[in-house]
Design goal:
Layout: H1 2-33, H2 49-61, H3 66-83, H4 86-107
Length: 113
């Protein structure tokens, strides 16, 4: 009886909490902080090659599948640059993690979690 509840909690964490926390750090803070000065004054839509690459690489290194993580990090960076919206980044990350979570549950691919 506890297993479905634990899986639901894991899924909600992966699809809601993790995207919010990670996007606040990676895109909202670090990508702008690496551009120098007060990160709060740097628009999310400002492109800076070093911060773009650094955040994509570090984001990937934080994840189990490093290359997939780097590609996802670059994709979320692009969302930030194109939209200037942290909410869009959180949504994109949430959709990715939600779809991954559905795949894990459907296929039993527990190693992806």
């Amino acid at each position: 009886a506890a297993r479905p509840l634990l899986l639901a909690i894991r899924f909600i964490g992966a699809a809601v909490l993790v995207p919010l926390a990670e996007e606040l750090f990676w895109r909202s803070f670090l990508m702008r902080h690496l551009q120098g000065g007060d990160f709060r004054r740097v628009p999310l839509s400002r492109f800076h090659p070093l911060s773009f690459l650094a955040v994509a690489i570090l984001f990937g290194l934080e994840h189990h599948l490093v290359v997939a993580g780097m590609l996802a990090g670059a994709a979320y960076n692009m969302v930030a640059l194109r939209t200037g919206s942290l909410g869009c980044c959180v949504l994109a990350h949430a959709v990715t993690n939600g779809l991954l979570g559905l795949w894990v549950l459907y296929a039993g691919a527990w190693e992806l979690w």
